[in-house]
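debug: dumping io for the single-chain case to check the tokenizer round-trip. Nothing else runs in this session.
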Amino acid sequence: MSTTLTIQSLIEHFENQLYRIDRQNLGDIAGREPQFPQLVIYLGGNARNAHQAVSASLLQTWPQYQAELKFLWVQANGEKLSFSQLPCDGDQPIAVSEEEVREIASALFGTRMHFSDRSKLLIYYVLDTTSFAGAEEFTAWLPRIRRVKDMLCTSSTDMLDVLYLLLNENLNRQKTASAIRNHLSGFYQNNDARQAVDNILLLSNRRSDNAILEDWDICYKILSATIVLSNNADTEIATDFFCGAVMTASYAREEKPLPQIGQVVVTGLIEELSRAAPQGEARPLEDPHLPDRLGLTNQGTFSMLDQYAESTLYSMLPTEAQLELFPRRDDAAQTAMCALPARAFNDYTMGAWGQYLSGVARGIREKISMDSPARTAWQERYKALLVANFSRDEIIHLAGRLQDVAQIMSRPKAPSQEAPVLTAARDQLKYMLSSDQELVQIFLSALREQGRISQDFSDMWSSLIKSMRKIHAVRDSNIATFYDRKVRDFYDRHGSELYSGFVGMHDTDELAAFLTNTLDHIIDSNEIFSSAFEDELESRLSEEALPVDAKQYIRKKLTGNDVYVYLQTNFALGDPLISAILLKVGTPLYNNLSNNLPPTTYYYNTGSSNTAESLVIYQVSAENLVSGEEE
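debug: decoded output
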């Protein structure tokens, strides 16, 4: 049974498929790759929360570097430090020793790694102040960082590092935040912060427009973008970033709204299928054809057992000549033994014939009881018969009333004993098998198991329906209307095929495969799903005949007045150290931006046509770090 099928998992599958398609469609415009070995090191409990977002973002830009991207988590208990490695594709920490940390770092310089320049190790520390009760908790991490650097053999390794400091400036944390800012103002006078790290990127949850962020999601994106940008073959960019300063950043991101598109498509598909689901209470016990649907013959025997008797047991019956060898009361028979009715033959042989048939049936029953594969095969065949003849709800109904079904299965009709002896014997063997309660239990057990499977399916489907009520509706009516129409167009073309596949399904794993495969087919059905995000936006806007040029709209979003700095300062920040756009180079959007933005703008080729990011790095002066509030 699949335990991971949720509305959210289906949306994530949809998103991942579009990312995969985008990577496959790189053509001759592949993205840049990381230049130097690097480590991302999360310091303390809150910093670890960044891992899922950061690792996923880096893998989207550098998917071929999954084996090379390494993430460590450092926890402190007083003076004692403990280390864990965090896998790229998960968040379950793996405890490692100091020696193993050194081995991880050493391996980054190995010949099997794909970094083109092994002259430096880049270290990106992440520290989140959210749980800090005072500035001393921040300063306590500075000697710990030095210990980590010493452990990584700074004396023998050329190392560039930066501390990403996520400064929580909520109103109830202002005192601590102010004290930390005041401490950082001494960075340029070579205080203990400067002695611990060479560079600090300070990101606050209080933006330059005085808005306070509810979470760190946008700062995690900035963190990822600066890692990508700074691990760069362009030495000028790397030098500008690792410049021995406290820095901050402004950031904007425009992208194909994959989560919203995925939500509209997934919920639209589920709603269409739910309308196709049979309605009304199942009442199979009232069906006059129920015995036939249960695989019973007109004589009340199981067709499967009858087939077994015909293929296996009939050969155990004596031939007409062998009937003459049975013991008898006398030798005065006036007719051939094979012509006698079964009752007369059994009487004439003084019951030997009945004992013989009983022995055949008993031997077969004993053989079947010892033959587990045969019983399993019969159960599987019978479950397939149930699936073919009943709906999910009918199977659940029957499985909940096994005693009633058992009565129907236990009514085989005794064959006539007036038929010729061998004809009656064949019918008698079928009767003996189908009236054997141990064999009947094989079929009841199959019904019980299939009922559980169908109930699991029903529960999962109900859970999917209910979970749709827990997600917020897509607020952008343009996205909702545009993609709801795409789902309905797809369903209009393939609805009957989807309906027959869905209603005939009983297993949760089949449901998961069915839904994900259908989502894949929806993606393949319309090129809009795999188009570059600027083309996708233009298609949506043109559908409503809005007089908006998509490329101009994106340029304004990336560079206009609504691009905020993620730190509130006392004075203007001055000229930026770096102004960069991260996008797929060589596209019409790139041409539009490069023709309209200042020539000092740097373009980093991500190779992804799903996203464009603008990132501006500023140096923060001591005057802009000082806070008026004292601890």
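debug: round-trip ok. DSSP finds 25 helices and twelve strands in the chain.
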